[in-house]
Amino acid sequence: MKTSSILPLFIFILILTACKSDRLTEQINQEVAMKDPHSYGNPDEVIIRHLDWVAAVNFETKIISATANLTVENLSGGNKIVLDIRDLAIEKVTLGEKKEITSFQVGQADSTFGAPLTITIKPETKLVSITYQTQPQAAALQWLTPEQTLGKKSPFLFTQSQAILARTWIPLQDGPQVRFTYSAEVTVPTGMLALMSASNPQEKSGNGVYHFKMEQPIPSYLMALAVGDIEFKSVGKRTGIYAEPAQLDAASWEFADTEKMVEAAEQLYGPYRWDRYDILVLPPSFPFGGMENPRLTFATPTVIAGDKSLVALIAHELAHSWSGNLVTNAIWDDFWLNEGFTVYFEGRIMEHVYGRDFAEMEQRLGFEDLKGTIAELGDTSRDSHLKLDLKGRDPDEGVSDIAYEKGANFLRVCEKAAGREKWDAFVKGYFEKYAFTSMTTEKFITYFEENFIAGDTVLANKIRAKEWIYGPGIPDNVIEYKSARLQAVDTEISNWNSGAKAEELLTKNWATPEWLYFLRGIPHTETIKRMTELDETFGFSKSQNSEIVSEWLEHSIQVGYKPAFPALEKFLTSVGRRKFLRPLYQQLIRTKEGREFAWTIYTKARPGYHSVSVKTIDEMIGWTKN
Fold this sequence. Notes:
By secondary structure, this protein is an alpha+beta fold. A hairpin with an 8-residue loop joins strand 6 (about 105) and strand 7.
């Protein structure tokens, strides 16, 4: 091509790119006009566009000393920016490159929401720098001693920012509708690796200094940091595993199909937009199964079962790279837009990689969980709506699997009503149109009605979207889940309940979903003799599969099978995943004897749990500091 042809084309591309960027900025500015009930921030007036974070991690004091350099846009020309903080010691605040000292005020603190940090700025202010320290009790940070790690040699630090805990380690506008890019320089003790939800090193630095960049805009809850004796192993051209050295090989084998999952996801809903997809396997105190931090999923070691039977969690966190990270719920009341789409997408990835029959089992179990949650909440409960009302509540405590499973079931109804081809085209277009922006339920409904329903009243009546979104319980047009493999398990449950011996049951080649379905199907009136027979035949109390052993232990508590209680104590004192802790403690405290046992275990285990799990279990068992 001649130079004379290139120049006009180049100018045209620049104009087109600028127009697209301006439209995206305008769209984001419109979205932040909504007041977030869980944030003190004023992004409708002054909004953060970029964070440059300079920090030093001190394991001895359990403090991060840092400066947050915020590039801001003053949309209103006002004289203040309001940030969210909780338990941060603010040392000074400056404006601009010349570091002009400015005044600030910390408002009245709330134990859950923290306090507003109001900083005086000028209409022309573009840079606000806050020098501060975290506190040892910062809720997002878990400082582990060497004894609490697998290697037992080095301490470990990891963060958990979702839902509103980023404010406990960085002063930000801590709401999901505010997106920003970031860079960071983090200094840690030599011999340790630092990782963030950004571009990451694959080897340890000689001087303990690490640099990071996240060039795609993210909300604050996706800020993440981990520091420890960590090593890396590649499992694909853009995928790899980080873990403590002693766990790296097992984790890499377990998650060897990660690259296939990324490829499957791209075939469904468009290109992966975050460069790399790596996984960090954390120590067992991590309170969740996984956390979808961009470029670096944080994962619990409880999914390493030795047979790849629990890797649906990785499919789930990967799916968040589209639903949640790319298109984000505007406030936590819209949480189903993150999680409902992700559970649906997870199932499609699992079906592609491991087959439809495996995905159907997962979906059936998820639906059974949903029915259990509805029964617990009550089928008229406001909390069983997809569109939640979490005002005044910690969103982390206010959500349940309603957002996950009811949301996914609604989307499967949409798929069935219109067919996969039409549904997939809609979802792919949705992710493309709203990439790197936030979404409200109401905005989604408008887009859904205009671009999917498109005036088709027959289709609309088949789906009944608003009944799913704004109504309680499970609408009666829900899909009936059938699974040939679980039907075969039904036969064995019937045989067992009719008196068959454990060794006579046809369980060869059962995967985790089949075992879970079996355990949920046997009665809670089992005799100790029959429980012993099951345990001796299948080794449930000694199982290394966290899902199976957790289900068995819950059943054992209900039956009163005391031989499993040593395994129960070991499990509760070595695993911090809230999904497992909550039902086990809940079953224990139903009786006086169980409550006493729960307190004995919790006294030992509590120091090793993350604050997210501690808050839940404290409230459940009535823990008080003596």
